[in-house]
Amino acid sequence: MRGWRLVCDGRATWVAAAVLAVACQGSTSESSDGRVQAAFPANALVYGQGPEGARSLYVVPVEGGEPSRLTSHPASDGLPRWTRDGRAVVFASQRSGNWQLWRTSIDGGDPTRLRVNEHREFQADESPDGRFLAFLSNREGPEFLWLLDQTTGELRTLVRHGKRTVMGNPHWSPDGRRIVFSSNWKSGHQIYVVDVASGEARRISPIGGCEPRFSPDGTKVVYVRRRPQGDKSLSRIVEHHVATGEETVVVDWPALNYDPVYSPDGSEIAFASTITGTWEIYRQRLADGKAHRVTFAEADARYPDYRPAAAGP
Questions:
Q1: Reading across the β-sheet that carries 112-113, which strands appear in turn?
Q2: Average pLDDT, stretch 67-71?
Q3: The architecture CATH gives domain 3-26+35-306
Q4: What is the DSSP-derived secondary structure letter of residue 288?
C-alpha cells in the first residue's frame, strides 16, 4: 500500500491509500450565549461535535473555514439532517432527558421539540417534498421505522422487525418512493431498502453494513462495512449500485470510517474518520479519491450532512 503524509501544526500522521490536502484551521469563536451568530453559506456541512453526552451542532463551509455553532445545551445534540429547503436542521437531543426529535432554524431562535413523549425517538430524515419525517422509535417496545405526516400529525409504522431489533440511519431516495436503512434483524446489521407505498423491504447488502445513504440520483447507496477479517478497529465505506448489486470500496483507510453522505451533485462524499486518532470530518472526491480534511477540533466531530443545493445563504 502507498503511504501519504498528513501534516498539521507540526504533527505528522501516515495515511494509507489516500491523499489528504489539508489547511490547518483555528477553533470557532462564540457569542455570549454560546452560539455563533453568522450567515450560513449555501455550500455547507452541518455536523455534531463534542464529547459523548455533551455534543453540539455546528455548520462549516464545505471548503473548510471557521465553524458556526448552531446549538448549545448541556445535554447532547446529534444526528443532524438539513430540511429540504436548507433553512432548518432536524436533529436528536437528550435535552428532555431522553432522545427526542428537535428542529432548529438557521435564522436563530430556540430549537423546537417536534414530538413530546417518553419514548426514544431519533435518527430522522425529511422526505424530498418536505411532508413526511422518517424516524426510529421504540414507542411499541422494539425499535421500528416510522413515518410522521408533518401536516396532519398522522403516524404510520413502515417497518417492523423482531423484538430485539436495532435499526439505523433511515434516508429517503430522491424520488420519495423508497427509504434505505439498516437493521440487525436475523443476521446482524444489514442494509435494507423499503418501498414506502407497500412497506415491502428487501436486503441489499451481501455481507453486512450500516449507515446507508442514497445518492442524489437514487442509483447508488453508500454505506459502512466492517473489514472481512472482523477487525473492529477498521471499517470500509462502500458504494452499492442498486440495479446491479455491484459494490465498490471508496474509503479503505486503516481506521474507523463512518457517517458517509453524498454531496448534492454526487461528485463526492463527506464522512467521519479516526485516521488521525480522533473523529474528524473529511470530504473525498469520488472520481480520483482525493480527500480533504474539513474539521480541526479538539473534540470528536461526527455525522456530517450537506446543505441542499437549492438552499440560499
A1: 77-82, 88-93, 100-105, 112-113
A2: 93
A3: 6 Propeller (2.120)
A4: T
